[in-house]
Amino acid sequence: MVGRRDSGEYQEIEAVVKEDSILKRVRLYPVAGQPFPEEMHIECSKKLRELPIGSKVRIQVVEKSPKSSHDTKHLYSSYKWKYELIE
Prior knowledge:
Helix content: under 10%
Distance between the termini: 23 Å
Number of strands: 6
Number of helices: 1
Order of helices and strands: EEEHEEE
Structural class: mainly beta
Shape: globular
């Protein structure tokens, strides 16, 4: 994995594919018990968001700050990074 950040900033977590009830679109969220809140969405590849609802994956993430006042703090996982399907 190559990025602009220090490699120590990346964390491996388990995430689940869910539908965002407010935005009415599919997103990834950390599984309960991970170091991030379950409601913190993960910016990730379209390929991951196309997995069936309820699918779980192991991915590398980094916390990303909002770019504007309309955005919220969220996690980021590059579309170039490998992931492991676990369920």
